[in-house]
Design a protein that fits this description.
mainly alpha, about 80% helix
Length: about 130
């Protein structure tokens, strides 16, 4: 499981870079509205992350891609929603700085996403 967790972290870092690059190209180079560019970049990030996690991190062969990708997308959208809630709680109730709150939220969502992918999306077998 540790090897998969490390790979998941590497994919997350790569995915962040890809998402930011796409956002930059869409918004700054093509002058697409920042909100539209953000949604497009986030969507591209989900696709990028799914491909790397399916074939490299979890080496999935158990389900159809459509079923897996649907679960993966649902899990990522839940993570996005929870990140927003955590941020609001940490900043408004906990009086933490937004940057600190984002760091804590990212860690919590990272763990949620890893275990959600491990046990639900890609259903890693005990021998893995």
């Amino acid at each position: 499981m540790i090897k998969k967790l490390l790979r998941f972290g590497i994919v997350g870092g790569l995915n962040t870079a890809v998402t930011l690059l796409i956002f930059y190209l869409l918004h700054h180079s093509l002058a697409i509205n920042y909100l539209v560019a953000s949604v497009m970049a986030y969507t591209a990030g989900i696709v990028n992350s799914y491909i790397w996690n399916r074939y490299w991190t979890f080496k999935s062969k158990t389900e159809t891609i459509a079923s897996e990708f649907s679960k993966f997308t649902i899990l990522n959208l839940i993570g996005l929603a929870l990140n927003t809630v955590f941020m609001a709680i940490f900043v408004e109730v906990g009086h933490l700085q937004p940057f600190t709150s984002q760091g804590i939220s990212i860690l919590l969502i990272f763990l949620l996403n890893f275990f959600g992918n491990y046990y639900w999306v890609f259903k890693v077998q005990k021998s893995d």
